[in-house]
């Protein structure tokens, strides 16, 4: 029995070692435990993905530079997709991505366009597609379509 437990223990250590020596697959990074791999877009996205929660560690996220296509919320911690800015849905925990003053001053990135309210950005393909995408319904405005 003792031998059996020893084998289990050694095997456990070995697989831990092996796991920590293994690289993550493409676009994935290690958690602080050095074992678990998570998608890089999950770093500082506001949800715990690492079992040790290191992907949302405050100090780490403060220093973290968001991946390409992602931007920091005003809290300087959370990264959200750049296209989530002013899209009408709250993505930042602090709601800064939908802040009225911020959105009014923000230009939509192509291929997104402003709704008439001057706040919300919607994909140009959603213009005149028969569904309301702007909160003010200006994307289906009869005169504009
Ligand atoms: Ca996360
Ligand atoms: Ca948003
Ligand atoms: Ca539409």
TrEMBL record:
<keyword id="KW-0675">Receptor</keyword>
<keyword id="KW-0472">Membrane</keyword>
<dbReference type="GO" id="GO:0016324">
    <property type="term" value="C:apical plasma membrane"/>
</dbReference>
<keyword id="KW-0677">Repeat</keyword>
<keyword id="KW-1133">Transmembrane helix</keyword>
<keyword id="KW-0812">Transmembrane</keyword>
<dbReference type="Pfam" id="PF00057">
    <property type="entry name" value="Ldl_recept_a"/>
</dbReference>
<dbReference type="GO" id="GO:0006898">
    <property type="term" value="P:receptor-mediated endocytosis"/>
</dbReference>
<feature type="signal peptide">
    <location>
        <begin position="1"/>
        <end position="21"/>
    </location>
</feature>
<keyword id="KW-1015">Disulfide bond</keyword>
<keyword id="KW-0325">Glycoprotein</keyword>
<protein>
    <submittedName>
        <fullName>Uncharacterized protein</fullName>
    </submittedName>
</protein>
<dbReference type="GO" id="GO:0043235">
    <property type="term" value="C:receptor complex"/>
</dbReference>
<dbReference type="InterPro" id="IPR002172">
    <property type="entry name" value="LDrepeatLR_classA_rpt"/>
</dbReference>
<dbReference type="InterPro" id="IPR051221">
    <property type="entry name" value="LDLR-related"/>
</dbReference>
<dbReference type="GO" id="GO:0042562">
    <property type="term" value="F:hormone binding"/>
</dbReference>
<keyword id="KW-0732">Signal</keyword>
<dbReference type="InterPro" id="IPR036055">
    <property type="entry name" value="LDL_receptor-like_sf"/>
</dbReference>
<dbReference type="InterPro" id="IPR023415">
    <property type="entry name" value="LDLR_class-A_CS"/>
</dbReference>
